Structures are given as structure tokens and as C-alpha cells.
Task: inverse folding
């Protein structure tokens, strides 16, 4: 697969999850969902294969997921059963401060 | 990255929710998304390189904007209040274009080389009735999403460029997906050619908040629509809020009974302190938010939240009370610096030019390219300062600073002082040519109808409260000040009037 760059849309190979890469400044990017490397939108996805317990937990649409250093940030554009990870390290939910609507 | 993706998410997650209402018609998120995809196909098939909209608000505006995003061409909303010549000149700068406009303008601008025209109602009908298509759209974050002609108070209007990365970053950084309640609704009064009109569309879609369009603003129509559509949120420019407040006061209303209205955001120009104070009293249960931003920054960069409004109006501490006149603190995704003319960063409480940095900041024009410096900072040409707590105060355009005998004088400081008086409605301070000083301070004043106030009285007031160099040498009483339709004071017109007076 092509290099992972900000702005790219990708999807899970095993579940319904779809994502967009917001930030990708870490080295050795290995973004996975449900334990399997994510694939391009045109590829075969959502195989329904069993997800290892370590990578369940699911994704929520509209939420952003980050690694500890926040060098990776992924927006979930469609929810699914698998959890996002960089290699074996599961990404955490990005905390965002609620702002009053200004428009 | 593409703004259409944000609408696609809304369509998938809440497709049946109403996205937009205009009079008695509505579109759901799914219908809006399907219409945008249909428009993207028409735009692609037309081989145009721009999609221009020369019109008031209607369903055609979001369909054209998201459709242009889907086709990967810039969306160019054009100010329909310009003269025919001005419109022709702008259209000539965006060819070949697909132009969406009303019947009258379609006939007038229809036969231009390079511009093919679709009449607005025809466009809406064709797109909303098209069969649903499923198609991929470009995801290049550097593609141009929107090209906006800035108001151009001097010379030819500049074409500011916002890329998909700028707008998507702004939305992701400031709006939580689907955070609106299903019953929430916002009035959209900002015209489509204003950056706030664009950000209102995208952030409403992303938050799942229904939009009710009000193409022709009047205080009565705004209040009527707010009640009829059970509006919860609205963004309003200062001149509009002033008209709403004046209308309510004329009706003898002391407290407004609008149980659905939760939040009012304002921005786009300077809000007189008397108006916001009156508004807080008339709407005691409404959360007020002040926002500051520019076309080149994809809209909002600082926000003064409702808690800060309440704290300020309740406080007896002048430093906290003063925050009602600030535009708040930067968004978490934005940095702000104040610099002197040599480019050195100034400490708190010292006024200079406002610089801003962040993913949402484009600072880019078609003509001169990027104006960001090597570290990504954009010089806004707005003057202002940050206080000790990081609140930003605006002091007008950097170009508006009056240089009197070598001393820099900010018009905003004098205007703010004058507007604390109960007998004045509005005030504009400008520099006029002076043989003695280079520039002299002059003021145009609007008094309350029943007030009697003399030039000497106002001069003494400024001398006592500020200092003698701030005293306007010339003061003219006028019926009203010139504003553009989004509430920006047309300072150059005041200057000409005062210099000639």
C-alpha cells in the first residue's frame, strides 16, 4: 500500500471502520484496525474475521484517535468493531475541550 | 481530506435528520449529500474549473459548495450587492465557470465567454431530484476548496484561497461531530459570500444542527423566524444585533421570551459595549459568544465564551469587566502573537500587529501566493494586544492607526471611551490630513435622538479620560455611520467625509 499521509482515507480489513488520517508524523507507520493493517478504500475490506480480544473495543464516528506522543491522529469517519492501533499499541481517544459554537 | 467527507459522515450517521430549512421546504443530510454528489457529477461533466454562486442564501448554496468539493474545483461565492461592472470583473477572473444565480442575473451574465449559467431553482430541482449515485471524491488536502474575493476597500478585490486542509482542520478543531441535539436549529443570516457563511454551513453539518435560512434580514423577520423555527442558536453581526435590540427596546420589551434560544454568537465587526450590555439584559438566559476571525483564517480564531460574558458583566473589577470588549482567547489549535513594526514579539498589554498560526490559517491569495512567514505566521494587518490573562483586544486595522506628530494613536481606544457615554449611539475616529501634525484626530459622532451634546464637551471628556493628544480636533455630528452589510465600518468613507467637512 502507498505511504500513509495526512488526508488519506482508509478502511479496516476486518470490520466496518473507515478512517481519515489527520496527522502522521511518526516513523514506521503501521496503522491497524482490529489487529490487521488498514487497506485502501478500493480494496476488499470488512472480512468479518474474528478480532483478537486485544483489538476489540470499536471505533466511534467523529472521534479522533491518537498515540501517546500525538504524532499520529486518526479521524473515524465510519464506526466499526475493531480498535485502531499503531503496530500493537492501541490508539487512545483524543480528549477535546468543548467549545461554544461560534458560527 | 475534503469538506464533502464531513457531509458524508453526517449523511451516514444521521441521514434522516433535517439538515436545512428554507421557508416550508427541508432537506435531510442524506438528501443534501445525494444532491451534492449529483452536483459534483454535473460540475465534472461541464469541464468548468470554478463553481461560482452569485445569489442570496438558498439550498443551491450548500449543494454547490459541497458539489464543487466533490468535483475537486474551487467554490467561488460572489457578492450579489456589487455593481454589474464589478460582478463582470470578478466573473472574468474565474473562467471557465459554472455560474449559479437567479433568473434576472442569469439573463444578464449568461452569454459571457467562459461562463455557463444554471438558474438557481432549476439547479436545486435538478440536484435534489437526481437519482442517488455513489462515487468517490478527491481527498487531496491541498486542493482549493473555496476562493473568496475580499471586500477590497482599496484597489481591486483580492482572491483569498482556502484549501480543504484549512477548512477541515478548522472544523475538527472547533466542532464536535453530532454534538447538537436533534431539536437544535440555527438561523443563517450571514450572506454566502462571507467566510462566516461558509463556516456556518460546514460546522452546522458536522455538528448535526439544522440550519434555517433567512436571506433577507430585518429585525422583525429574524425574531419571527427564531420563534417559528424554535431556533436554538444564531450567529449575528453587530449591525444586525443592534437592529434587533433597538427593535425590542422600541416595542417596550424588557426581557425577551424565547425559550428555545440557547446561544447567540456574534462577530464580524466591532460590537458597541452598550449593545452587548443591553443584549445580556434582554436575553438573560441566552449564552453569548464573541468570535473573531478573518477570511484568510477560515473564520474563527478567538472566542469569548458565555461564562466569560456573565463573569464580566457581573464583576466590579474593571480588568474583568473590560473583557466584554475583548474577542476572547485563541482556539486550542491556534497561536497568536503581537509584534511591533520591526517584527519583534511584544509582551502582554502592548499593542501591535496581530499574527496568527495554525492549520486553519491559509494567508494565501491567488495573486501573490502565501503571505505566511517562514515559521507559518500570518500577518493579519489587524492591530491589538493580549492582556495578562491572554485575552485579545482589537484596535482596528493596522492601517487605521493615526500617526499624529510621530505618535501612534489607536482609533479604537478613543471610540471605546466615547461609546461609554449614554448620550452617544455611535462613534468613528479617523486620521485626517493636517499641516501641523501630518495627521490629526477627527471624529464622526451619532448622538441619541434626544441628546444635546457639544463638541467642547466631548473634547473635554477625551482630554480628562485619556490625554490631550487623543482629543479629536474636528468633531462632526452625523445621522449615521457607513457600514457594509456585514457590519464592517467603512472607515475610508468616514475619513473622506471628515476631511471634506
Result:
Amino acid at each position: 500500500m502507498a505511504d500513509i499521509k495526512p488526508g488519506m482515507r482508509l478502511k479496516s480489513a476486518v470490520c466496518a471502520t473507515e478512517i481519515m488520517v489527520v496527522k502522521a508524523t511518526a516513523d514506521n507507520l503501521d496503522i491497524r484496525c482490529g489487529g490487521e493493517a488498514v487497506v485502501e478504500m478500493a480494496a476488499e475490506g470488512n472480512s468479518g474475521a474474528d478480532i483478537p480480544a486485544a483489538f476489540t473495543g470499536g471505533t466511534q464516528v467523529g472521534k479522533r484517535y491518537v498515540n501517546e506522543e500525538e504524532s499520529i491522529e486518526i479521524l473515524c469517519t465510519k464506526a466499526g468493531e475493531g480498535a485502531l492501533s499503531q503496530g500493537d499499541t492501541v490508539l487512545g481517544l483524543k480528549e477535546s475541550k468543548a467549545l461554544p459554537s461560534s458560527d | 481530506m475534503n469538506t464533502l467527507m464531513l457531509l458524508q459522515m453526517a449523511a451516514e450517521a444521521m441521514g434522516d435528520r433535517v439538515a436545512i430549512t428554507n421557508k416550508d421546504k427541508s432537506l435531510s443530510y442524506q438528501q443534501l449529500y445525494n444532491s451534492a454528489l449529483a452536483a459534483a457529477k454535473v460540475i465534472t461533466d461541464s469541464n468548468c474549473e470554478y463553481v461560482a454562486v452569485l445569489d442570496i442564501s438558498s439550498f443551491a448554496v450548500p449543494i454547490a459548495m459541497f458539489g464543487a468539493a466533490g468535483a475537486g474545483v474551487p467554490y467561488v461565492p460572489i457578492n450579489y450587492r456589487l455593481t454589474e461592472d464589478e460582478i463582470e470583473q470578478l466573473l472574468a477572473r474565474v473562467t471557465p465557470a459554472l455560474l449559479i444565480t437567479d433568473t434576472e442575473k442569469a439573463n444578464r451574465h449568461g452569454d459571457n465567454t467562459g461562463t455557463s449559467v444554471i438558474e438557481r431553482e432549476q439547479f436545486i430541482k435538478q440536484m435534489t431530484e437526481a437519482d442517488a449515485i455513489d462515487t468517490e471524491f478527491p481527498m487531496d488536502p491541498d486542493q482549493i476548496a473555496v476562493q473568496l474575493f475580499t471586500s477590497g476597500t482599496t484597489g481591486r478585490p483580492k482572491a483569498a484561497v482556502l484549501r480543504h486542509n484549512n477548512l477541515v482542520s478548522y472544523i475538527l478543531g472547533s466542532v464536535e461531530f453530532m454534538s447538537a441535539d436533534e431539536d437544535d436549529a440555527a438561523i443563517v443570516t450571514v450572506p454566502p459570500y462571507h467566510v462566516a457563511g461558509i463556516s456556518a454551513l460546514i460546522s452546522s453539518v458536522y455538528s448535526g444542527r439544522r440550519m434555517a435560512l433567512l436571506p433577507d434580514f430585518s429585525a422583525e423577520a429574524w425574531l419571527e423566524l427564531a420563534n417559528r423555527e424554535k431556533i436554538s442558536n444564531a450567529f449575528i453581526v453587530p449591525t444586525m444585533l443592534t437592529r434587533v435590540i433597538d427593535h425590542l427596546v422600541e416595542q417596550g420589551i424588557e426581557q425577551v421570551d424565547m425559550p428555545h434560544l440557547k446561544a447567540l454568537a456574534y462577530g464580524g465587526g466591532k460590537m458597541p459595549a452598550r449593545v452587548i450590555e443591553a443584549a445580556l439584559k434582554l436575553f438573560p438566559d441566552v449564552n453569548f459568544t464573541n468570535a473573531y476571525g478573518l477570511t484568510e483564517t477560515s473564520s474563527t480564531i478567538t472566542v469569548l465564551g458565555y461564562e466569560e460574558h456573565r463573569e464580566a458583566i457581573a464583576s466590579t473589577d474593571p480588568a474583568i469587566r473590560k473583557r466584554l470588549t475583548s474577542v476572547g482567547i485563541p482556539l486550542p489549535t491556534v497561536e497568536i502573537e503581537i509584534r511591533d513594526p520591526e517584527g519583534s514579539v511584544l509582551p502582554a498589554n502592548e499593542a501591535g500587529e496581530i499574527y496568527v498560526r495554525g492549520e486553519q490559517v491559509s494567508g494565501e491569495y491567488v495573486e501573490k501566493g502565501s503571505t505566511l512567514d517562514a515559521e507559518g505566521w500570518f500577518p493579519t494587518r489587524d492591530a491589538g494586544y493580549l492582556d495578562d490573562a491572554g485575552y485579545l483586544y482589537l484596535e482596528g486595522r493596522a492601517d487605521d492607526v493615526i500617526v499624529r506628530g510621530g505618535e501612534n494613536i489607536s482609533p479604537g481606544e478613543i471610540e471605546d471611551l466615547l461609546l461609554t457615554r449614554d448620550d452617544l449611539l455611535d462613534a468613528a475616529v479617523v486620521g485626517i490630513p493636517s499641516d501641523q501634525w501630518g495627521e490629526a484626530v477627527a471624529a464622526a459622532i451619532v448622538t441619541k435622538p434626544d441628546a444635546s451634546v457639544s463638541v467642547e464637551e466631548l473634547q473635554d471628556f477625551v482630554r480628562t479620560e485619556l490625554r490631550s493628544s487623543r482629543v479629536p480636533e474636528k468633531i462632526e455630528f452625523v445621522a449615521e455611520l457607513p457600514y457594509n452589510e456585514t457590519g464592517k465600518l467603512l472607515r475610508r468613507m468616514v475619513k473622506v467625509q471628515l476631511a471634506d467637512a
User: Anything to note?
Assistant: Chain A has one domain: 9-92. Chain A has a mean pLDDT of 92. The beta strands of chain A are 9-11, 18-24, 31-33, 36-37, 39-40, 64-66, 72-78, 84-86, 89-90, 92-93. The interface with chain B takes residues 6-9, 20, 22, 41, 61-64, 75, 77-78, 96-103 of chain A (CB under 8 Å).
